[in-house]
Amino acid sequence: MTSSTQKWFRRLGTVVSSLCTVAVVASACGTAPDNGGTLPMQDPADVSAKVAGIIKKMSDADLAGQVLMPFAYGRSATDVSAGTAAGNKALAGVDTPAQMIEKYRLGGMILIGFGGNDPTAANQPVNNVESPEQVRALTGGLQSAAARLPADVPLLIGMDQEFGVVTRLSTGMTTLPSAMTFGAAGDPRLTEVAWRAAGLELAAVGVNVNFAPVADVLGPAGSSVIGSRSYGSDPKAAGEQVVAAVKGMRAGGVAATLKHFPGHGHTAADSHTELPVVNQTRQLLDSDDLATFKAGIDADAPLIMSGHLDVQAIDPGVAATFSKKVLIDLLRKEMGFQGVVVTDGMNMAPAMKVPPGEAAVQALLAGNDLILMPPHVGKAHQGIVDAVTAGTLPRARLVEAVGRILSLKLGFGQAAAPALSTVGTHQQEVAPLAAAAVTVLRGACGKPLVTGPVRVTASAGRDKARNRLIEALKRNGATVVETGGSVVHLVGYGDAADDLSAAAAVTVHMDVPTLLAKSTSKVLVATYSSSDLSMDGLAAVLTGKAKPTGRSPIEVTGLPRTTCA
């Protein structure tokens, strides 16, 4: 067993021990009042011994399966339609997700769901989440399949539940606003409470790994694929938010993932379709992009996702996913990260330039431990096995990766799931955060922003947010009309100048608010999110029932960060 793996076991013991000192994290060491989960404290030496014992019994094929986390077609682990079975046959040569786990001895599986505004939709070929009840049944079936494997360890079940524009499961859940909303609120205490609530609900549906928070610091150009997924442009403030998110999810029983290392926020291209170039100097990388990851590592973040990024200052021309200089020299040796490194989706364009088996091997050799969304499960699995047999992938490297994954499972994968009835019950914990983020960038502070009859309009596709705002305005005593009145106009993700309204007295941006620089409205407001709770907070500010305490976490040309000092 390698020294780095042993160090990770010791670090895991420190994490679990520290969790047990926090009352709200009883799920890590006792019985939590609202989730019923239990996970006994474990001595690092015991964890190390358990992992070593498990690995000793594993064949090369078992080890290869543990480092794979593919997607699968189907909203059930075992009951699939003919079309779903055909999708799984093309992906992995099996009919059902359960069969995929059993055939390839998989260590994990990712669940997918996406909406129309999702910038990650390009590599999401399946939508297998529908409701909390369905997801709980699906994850239960997946874990039952994993229980039949020789390893006898739980499955890592992941999801990109970032919230905001990347929200995999929204129906029935307490929906958090976007990361930029947290940045605007600027209160890590509220962030930690909100993410604990999200962690509890994810754990309740059977998800134990969340591919969030986004630790990317947003550069001046404002990467459109990252956008409001980022906490903002200030590395220190964003780092505080990242730490709070990691702690909150851990308290809820879910392992958080920092992404996209070493930083996607200063890029122009979209890594789903091409290889973005990071042109930051090494000095700027240290002060900007890497600062949030350093903060997350210090907070014992259990996973970091490598990005499909060409980092010119470190390894020009090589995607970070396949770069030892980025993942081993920088992340492991220089920054001291000992947790699990997971690739970004291997079905994204930069990774698809290499055949699935070869890509999986190259990713492992570069320092990744977990291969996410291989485009063909069978070829990825066989490629790893063949490389170990041929000696091109040292078995010790594979054992090291599996050791980290197993230690993660022992830390986060064995607690009993909270009751499903906890899902959708945490609005009160999240509402203060959404309300605190509302920002006035133009207009008076401390009084109602609209008086008399109000008419709410919106750019195309914003009906849900518009309807929620209308309801909230009425609850706050406003008179809402269909014609006439003072116009409050909503714009959001992907909108342009043509989507603004010249008639609007108030223009509200529900995503990255840079478009407000082009608005002529007398009052400009940012919520950074179109969530229900964000619209509730907006209504309270518009009617003067609440003070807008938010501060824009990014610069908007010609406008202050807030008019409320």
UniProtKB/TrEMBL annotation:
TM region positions: none
Organism: Catellatospora citrea
Domain Glycoside hydrolase family 3 N-terminal: 97-408
GO biological process: carbohydrate metabolic process; peptidoglycan turnover
Keywords tagged on the record: Glycosidase, Hydrolase, Signal
Gene Ontology molecular function, alphabetical: hydrolase activity, hydrolyzing O-glycosyl compounds
PROSITE patterns in the record: GLYCOSYL_HYDROL_F3 (PS00775), PROKAR_LIPOPROTEIN (PS51257)
SUPFAM superfamilies membership: (Trans)glycosidases
Name of this protein: Beta-N-acetylhexosaminidase
Domain of life of the organism encoding this protein: Bacteria
Family: Belongs to the glycosyl hydrolase 3 family.
InterPro entries from the UniProt entry: GH, Glyco_hydro_3_AS, Glyco_hydro_3_N, Glyco_hydro_3_N_sf, NagZ_Beta-hexosaminidase
Residues spanning the signal sequence: 1-28
Pfam families: Glyco_hydro_3
